[in-house]
Amino acid sequence: MEVHPEAGKEGKPSCALVELQGDSSLQVEISDAVSERDKVKFTVQTKSCLPHFAQTEFSVVRQHEEFIWLHDAYVENEEYAGLIIPPAPPRPDFEASREKLQKLGEGDSSVTREEFAKMKQELEAEYLAIFKKTVAMHEVFLQRLAAHPTLRRDHNFFVFLEYGQDLSVRGKNRKELLGGFLRNIVKSADEALITGMSGLKEVDDFFEHERTFLLEYHTRIRDACLRADRVMRSHKCLADDYIPISAALSSLGTQEVNQLRTSFLKLAELFERLRKLEGRVASDEDLKLSDMLRYYMRDSQAAKDLLYRRLRALADYENANKALDKARTRNREVRPAESHQQLCCQRFERLSDSAKQELMDFKSRRVSSFRKNLIELAELELKHAKASTLILRNTLVALKGEP
Amino acid sequence: MAAEREPPPLRDGKPTDFEELEDGEDLFTSTVSTLESSPSSPEPASLPAEDISANSNGPKATEVVLDDDREDLFAEATEEVSLDSPEREPILSSEPSPAVTPVTPTTLIAPRIESKSMSAPVIFDRSREEIEEEANGDIFDIEIGVSDPEKVGDGMNAYMAYRVTTKTSLSMFSKSEFSVKRRFSDFLGLHSKLASKYLHVGYIVPPAPEKSIVGMTKVKVGKEDSSSTEFVEKRRAALERYLQRTVKHPTLLQDPDLRQFLESSELPRAVNTQALSGAGILRMVNKAADAVNKMTIKMNESDAWFEEKQQQFENLDQQLRKLHASVEALVCHRKELSANTAAFAKSAAMLGNSEDHTALSRALSQLAEVEEKIDQLHQEQAFADFYMFSELLSDYIRLIAAVKGVFDHRMKCWQKWEDAQITLLKKREAEAKIMVANKPDKIQQAKNEIREWEAKVQQGERDFEQISKTIRKEVGRFEKERVKDFKTVIIKYLESLVQTQQQVFKIEVLMNGRKHFVEKRYSEFHALHKKLKKCIKTPEIPSKHVRNWVPKVLEQRRQGLETYLQAVILENEELPKLFLDFLNVRHLPSLPKAESYGSFDETESEESSKLSHQPVLLFLRDPYVLPAASDFPNVVIEGVLHGIFYPHLQPR
């Protein structure tokens, strides 16, 4: 299956997710994307006047794995420990809609041809929407990197943008995946250990507050996201239900006695139009609400990771202090311990500073995008509600007008 | 998108019509099958079936009957029936004959939403109700309601008793209003009695609701939970519709059993209605035998009308079943949606709780509130879907089964007749043989037999003719009822949809308005004031200095600002764009717009920002003071909405 949506031009649904105020010295966008079998190839286009780049405009072809690699490179870089690394884009997942399409193709015979055509159309639209969304997610990732004053200066990022050839990044193999999984477990265990067992005292109220907030917020937003998804799905189901109703009504209309025929046909038409509206409502909800929630779920995860890194640094610092004390009492190896303690202290302070800034940024970003999206959502819902009221009213008038 | 947000085109009529909006609730609680009055004109010439015994004028009589039915389809006012239109075939075909097409434009259906009971003026057979003939044109009505289901007894012997209330002006009942207690099996008993009496002569006896062992067991065993109350309510509605359908049938209404059912306080216990009794098994065996019979009998249909009708009903049945299945799916999904929305509302509220940005947190909890309301709406809509649409369909699926049963009876009748003819033929042959054999003693006997069989043949033929006629009449009536039913229900259903949509609409406005409110601050008010002072006359703005943030002071200030804004609107004919911008009339449907949004046919927005509707402006309780203010449904807004949206719904 090949799809060439002009992803860069029309509909960048998720750009609304974050408001970026980057200057124009580095602009990144995904101008095109091609889906080939199980791979999606993104064309990343860069415009820049930074002296680092040889040209001012260039484009490269990248795959999802390379995005992941870039993200991992950021996460593993010690220099960025004090920053919120933008969450990596989700894997392109077209399996579900492809499967549905296939199932429809095999389909049971009870569906009429028109119904089939409509359902297929619906599924194709869904597929396209997912595709576009995926592209937009990748784009947002790059744009956030490009807009960040520190992250944009990363060497890997430059390579990613500029290097003409394939980066030959392979996807993670099973061992690595397992390793990542284990690391995650160790990390959360460590986190629990630091806070719970050693009774580490938080020195800064701000961070104490942020931590409790983020922990709670993350679970809540995950929950909300899940629910919103479910709402959206059932909305879609509802819209799909209108298809057979409309079809049945219209076939009923064609063979009905005279007095009812027009009514049935009108009703069928009504349901058809309502279906489209419902579908639009569902997709808007998806776009404005659940996508936003999902993005911020991942963003808050990133923020949580940042807090963990800071906590870890704090723990290191405390340990270094203890080690120094010990060394002093024994009067042995005081110097290296001192320098180590110094190092930890510096690191911790640097982390705290940048983390504070980052968390503030995160908050303002979140608030503004929530506001924007919620208002847009309300507007769209209003619009749809108006439209459907109009349709219903017109039909009602038409039906009443009949003898 | 900007176009939609323009101020609506302005209406001259006063939009403040303080009529309460129809509550969405009555919509779905009102029983579904509120059928509007059937033609109230006295039926001119429907000859009772008994009178058409003579074969000679059979076809003519049929024509008459059919004509009546046709005319009745269209209007209450058509009294004269053109008996002299010979070109009209006695076929209710789908193409209307020319004489029928000029449909009298009467309002056949005036949808009523509020009525809980029905009024069904019943048409009488003239010959039967000679007495009533004088009161020509009067409407005889009978209203039946089924209400107050209550549980009687305990354990597996428990049953639900329903109160059947009848209101009538018919003289055949001793009182004009009475009510009795009946249980479900009584209804079934009534149905089986009526069916055994009338089905074989070709009347369509409305089918009783189905038994449901699972549901009833739940009710019997279970305590008060939602599914069992839902079941009881569903059954109650079904029973009500059943009775209403039954009494609407002119012949069935005359039946003593029905009268007894409605009137007498004691009713012989209906037996043999239990699903798992011997009789039930017998019934099942009978049904199976019938089915086999149906397959074996090959009737060469002599009447095109019947053939067509049978075909039509067959199709109709299929289509309705399909539709019913889809609607069930719809209902199911809508319920799911409602549940999911509720869950989402909860988690949005939780999210709002944990959000540390105050305004955002408030917005989120408002979102949660809105979602909760939407959930309510979805739920109501699901109920409406179910009680109006789905139940109508299932009723008609059962009714069609009854119609089919009638057709089967006709077939049986025909078979009997045929059998009689064959026997007669045989007897005649035997007689001829006897004549040849010349046995005088047997000739007499054979002659007797022949006479007997001739009579039987005639009887059979008559029976057949009659059943055919009755069926025709009945089917005509059925069609008429069906058309009316469907139309009423469809319209009502659509109206419910409209209402739901409008409520969603309102709530969304609420969401947006509130959201916006959060963003307006006193300082902005003040800035506005300064700017306005330059161009128009302004009233006094409330004092700027507020010493402390106590709610009372804030509330005062809120009121002050409110009066201030209202005064600005009232005192100035032309409002500066600045002011409207402040209220976001043009950019966002914030609250003030809520009063003036509306008409969909808004076309171009004139640059003039004059408000030609009566300026209505109000503030909700200040969200800063009372964040949980929830009394949005405001009389003014409702009135305005009513004025804008419902002019066509107003009593004409």
From TrEMBL, chain A:
Family of this protein: Belongs to the sorting nexin family.
PX domain residues: 20-168
Lineage: Eukaryota, Metazoa, Chordata, Craniata, Vertebrata
Pfam families (UniProt xref): PX (PF00787), Vps5 (PF09325)
GO biological process per UniProt: endosome to lysosome transport via multivesicular body sorting pathway; neuron projection extension; protein transport; retrograde transport, endosome to Golgi
GO CC terms: cytosol; early endosome; late endosome; plasma membrane; recycling endosome; retromer complex; trans-Golgi network; tubular endosome
Transport listed as a keyword: yes
Protein name (database record): Sorting nexin
UniProt source species: Cebus imitator (Panamanian white-faced capuchin)
Function of the protein: Involved in several stages of intracellular trafficking.
InterPro entries (alphabetical): AH/BAR_dom_sf (IPR027267), PX_dom (IPR001683), PX_dom_sf (IPR036871), SNX5/SNX6/SNX32 (IPR014637), Vps5_C (IPR015404)
This protein's record includes keyword Isomerase: no
GO MF annotation terms: dynactin binding; phosphatidylinositol binding
PROSITE patterns the record matches: PX
UniProt keyword list: Protein transport, Transport
Gene3D superfamilies: Arfaptin homology (AH) domain/BAR domain, Phox-like domain
From TrEMBL, chain B:
Gene Ontology cellular component list: cytosol; early endosome membrane; lamellipodium; retromer, tubulation complex
Membrane topology summary: Peripheral membrane protein
Coiled-coil annotated spans: 436-470
Compositionally biased residues, Low complexity: 27-50, 93-104
Pfam family, one: Sorting_nexin
GO molecular function: epidermal growth factor receptor binding; insulin receptor binding; leptin receptor binding; phosphatidylinositol binding; transferrin receptor binding
Role summary: Involved in several stages of intracellular trafficking. Interacts with membranes containing phosphatidylinositol 3-phosphate (PtdIns(3P)) or phosphatidylinositol 3,5-bisphosphate (PtdIns(3,5)P2). Acts in part as component of the retromer membrane-deforming SNX-BAR subcomplex. The SNX-BAR retromer mediates retrograde transport of cargo proteins from endosomes to the trans-Golgi network (TGN) and is involved in endosome-to-plasma membrane transport for cargo protein recycling.
Protein name: Sorting nexin-2
Organism in which the protein naturally occurs: Callithrix jacchus
Chain's gene name: SNX2
